[in-house]
């Protein structure tokens, strides 16, 4: 059921996400996505626990990933292509563009995901350097997902400062679970338990 939802429903929430500049619209879209996932799985616990267990990051994390990946695509395109043309036109204007423009938001996103890559001339990670030309963007996405996973862990860690409760206990377990190295992967019991018991365990946890 989870894989079916990810394949058929989740793409609609991510389709134009990189172009949304209003944070309130992203929050509204996040609430709608949480309701859709909860209704599909019939799990109505805290959304933080539900998203973490299913390996689905919050939309603001995914939006940063999309913006940085789009920036990489423009920057790495050959100089004689249409994709590279906007990149060349934006460079002289980056210091004066409004805060809600796509160019400024790409710079902000890369500062949050991978500050070392804010300078396009900085060296690429080894996995991107060694990748074949046609696989560089895919390698870049895998590297960025690991960075976004770390960012999501840090944001989950802020919950530990809250008063004791169900969510705080769950986040503590989530951050110290040695079987879940990446927050993009579903909880282990989704793959190690038979189908009839997966949702039951999810309901217990969340």
Strand proportion, as a percent range, falls in under 5%
Uncertain runs are: none
Count of spatially separate domains: 1
The run of helices and strands is HHHHHHHHHHHH
Indicate the structural class: mainly alpha
C-alpha termini separation: 17 Å
Round the Cα radius of gyration to an integer and report it. Answer: 19 Å
Please work out how many helical segments DSSP would assign: 12
- Helix fraction? 55-70%
Number of strands: 0
Largest sheet: none
Shape: globular
Mean of residue pLDDT? 77
Features:
globular; 206 residues; mainly alpha
Annotate the secondary structure layout:
Blueprint: H1 2-8, H2 10-14, H3 23-41, H4 47-54, H5 59-76, H6 84-90, H7 102-113, H8 126-129, H9 136-157, H10 166-175, H11 189-192, H12 195-205
Describe, in plain words, how this protein is organized in 3D.
The mean pLDDT is 77. Helices cover 62% and strands 0% of the residues. By secondary structure, the chain is mainly alpha-helical.
A few lines on this structure:
The chain has 206 residues and is an all-alpha fold.
